[in-house]
Amino acid sequence: MGFVRENGVVGSGKIVLMNEKGRSWNFNLRQKPSCGTVYVRGGWVSFCDANGLQAGDIYTFKLIKRGGTLVLRLLPKGAESCSLDPSCFVANVAPSTLRYDTLVFDS
After folding, report:
1. CA distances (Å), origin 57, targets 12, 14, 36, 107
2. Strand, coil or helix: what is 73?
3. Which CATH number among 1.10.150, 2.60.40, 2.60.120, 2.40.330 corresponds to the domain 2-105?
4. What is the pTM (predicted TM-score) of this model?
5. What stretches of the chain show up as alpha helix (H) in DSSP?
6. Is pLDDT at 48 greater than 90 in this prediction?
């Protein structure tokens, strides 16, 4: 839960995911009370389709606005990795995230 903990991401509120061109998708942020997992449900598949993300792809989001509505921007494929930067979220498009149309912030 490094990204979630480091950036104070909590499970109720709004979040905006942007692609590298600035187009945005709005989501409701939720949190499972039993385990603290933070996620968005519904729209993840549309985001992936619009941005050419497929199962197995690695993607990176950078937190560009906190407080109020969080804003995360998708970094271009092949961009320099920021895996050590706590404001970055690096993960892969797991088949289960597509099947359940859910983005989980659990790393």
Report:
1. 28, 25, 25, 16
2. strand
3. 2.40.330
4. 0.86
5. 2-6, 44-50, 95-99
6. yes
